[in-house]
């Protein structure tokens, strides 16, 4: 009989590559992580350049707080984060990131370069994400440029699961839209293979929703704002008469984070139930604001799932708010249909 295999610790790179399986599903998931980092850094303008559906290149330039020279290598280290320090922080987390895993994961399956300059620094520093590399001086205005090249160059098995360039880019564009809807105060531009896909100016939530979902959506939607309270629902939802054949315009956010949540989807379906034919889908862009301690975002590395402490209350609240907005009598201007 063969002796049983010995137990040993995995090398760091392999640990990151395993973790990357959860975070880096495709180019769009890299893009999501990099965009969230730029937003967490307090950026007011973000430029995104993508080549070949994001497989060849994803470059994000921001004007956020930057990373200090001596922390560039740490930023690429697993479980290194500037966003939380304790369990208490985790329970009240207000940033999009907190796991300190994304950059390390991306760096383990692609070529990653960070160039960053903090306000007050004489110049920028660049770190090429290879083990043992040290930062070199670079030229850049304050902010950060994160460049990811050649996704899965060292994990060919993963590369096989990538779809056609157009499909991967469509996922990237959708990721940008989801994030852009929740951050109307940040100017965002997206270019693919050198061609501008869209350029979103800073504005208010309605202008941003109009730019992404169409001005006719805003013109024909009911506006919801339940006002301050333990839970608040703000946003726009389409009237049944303006429903769509596809369910491709349904955006739900919890504390600024896009979520795909069965409970919320169910509450919305119920609210529309008696007003929509089975094959029609409402369009909505709704933001739930709730005490961060009342929701757990640490369910999955990609963080598109959440768990509410009191899920019944959230369901009821969303259901009633949307139902009320939809049943506001005609004649009142949609923009005034505030619940
Ligand atoms: P997390 O976002 O969970 O902290 P990441 O691996 O995504 O983990 O990033 C690690 C750290 O690198 C962040 O905590 C942050 O301090 C820094 N960082 C990453 N991207 C940026 C950026 N665009 N601007 C400023 N700091 C950044
Ligand atoms: Mg992050």
Instruction: Write down how many β-strands occur, each being a DSSP E stretch of 2 or more residues.
Output: 15
Head-to-tail CA distance between termini: 73 Å
Morphology = globular
Q: Which structural class do the helices and strands define?
A: alpha+beta
Largest sheet: 8 strands, mixed
What ligand species are in this complex? adenosine-5'-diphosphate, magnesium ion
Strand order of the largest sheet: 5-4-3-6-2-1-7-8
What are the low-pLDDT stretches, counting only 5+ consecutive residues below 50?
Answer: 331-339
Order of helical and strand elements: HHEEHHHEEEEHHEEHHEEEEHEEEH
Question: What's the average pLDDT?
Answer: 92
Percent of residues in helical segments? 25-40%
Q: How many helical stretches? A: 11
| Rg, Cα atoms, Å | 22 Å
Strand content: 15-25%
Question: Topology of this protein?
Answer:
Layout: H1 12-23, H2 27-40, E1 45-51, E2 57-62, H3 72-75, H4 87-91, H5 102-109, E3 111-117, E4 124-128, E5 136-138, E6 143-149, H6 156-159, H7 165-182, E7 187-192, E8 195-200, H8 205-213, H9 215-220, E9 221-225, E10 231-238, E11 250-254, E12 257-258, H10 262-272, E13 284-290, E14 295-296, E15 307-308, H11 311-326
Parallel strand pairs: 1-7, 11-13
Antiparallel strand pairs: 1-2, 2-6, 3-4, 3-6, 4-5, 7-8, 9-10, 10-13, 11-12, 14-15
Helix pairs in contact: 1-5, 2-7, 7-8, 10-11
Bound molecules: adenosine-5'-diphosphate (ADP) and magnesium ion.
């Amino acid at each position: 009989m063969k002796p049983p295999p010995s137990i040993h610790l995995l090398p760091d790179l392999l640990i990151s590559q395993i973790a990357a399986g959860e975070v880096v599903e495709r180019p769009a998931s890299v893009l999501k992580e990099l965009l969230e980092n730029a937003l967490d850094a307090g950026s007011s303008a973000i430029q995104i350049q993508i080549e070949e559906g994001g497989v060849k290149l994803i470059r994000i330039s921001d004007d956020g707080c930057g990373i200090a020279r001596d922390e560039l290598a740490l930023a690429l280290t697993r479980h290194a984060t500037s966003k939380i320090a304790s369990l208490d922080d985790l329970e009240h987390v207000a940033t999009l990131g907190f796991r300190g895993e994304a950059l390390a994961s991306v760096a383990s399956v692609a070529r990653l370069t960070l160039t960053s300059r903090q306000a007050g620094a004489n110049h920028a520093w660049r770190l090429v994400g290879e083990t043992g590399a040290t930062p070199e001086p670079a030229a850049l205005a304050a902010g950060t440029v994160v460049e990811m090249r050649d996704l899965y160059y060292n994990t060919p098995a993963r590369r096989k699961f990538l779809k056609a360039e157009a499909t991967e880019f469509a996922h990237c564009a959708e990721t940008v839209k989801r994030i852009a809807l929740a951050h109307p105060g940040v100017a965002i531009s997206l270019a693919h293979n050198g061609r501008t896909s869209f350029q979103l100016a800073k504005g208010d939530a309605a202008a941003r929703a109009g730019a992404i979902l169409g001005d006719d959506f805003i013109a024909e939607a009911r506006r919801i704002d339940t006002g301050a309270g333990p839970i608040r629902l703000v946003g726009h939802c389409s009237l049944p008469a303006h429903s769509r054949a596809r369910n491709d315009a349904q955006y739900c956010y919890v504390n600024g984070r896009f979520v795909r949540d069965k409970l919320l989807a169910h509450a919305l379906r119920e609210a529309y139930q008696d007003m929509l034919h089975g094959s029609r889908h409402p369009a909505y862009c709704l933001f739930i604001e709730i005490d961060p301690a009342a929701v757990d975002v640490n369910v999955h590395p990609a963080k598109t799932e959440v768990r509410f402490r009191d899920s019944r209350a959230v369901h009821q609240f969303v259901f009633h708010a949307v139902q009320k907005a939809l049943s506001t009598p005609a004649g009142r201007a949609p923009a005034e249909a505030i619940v």
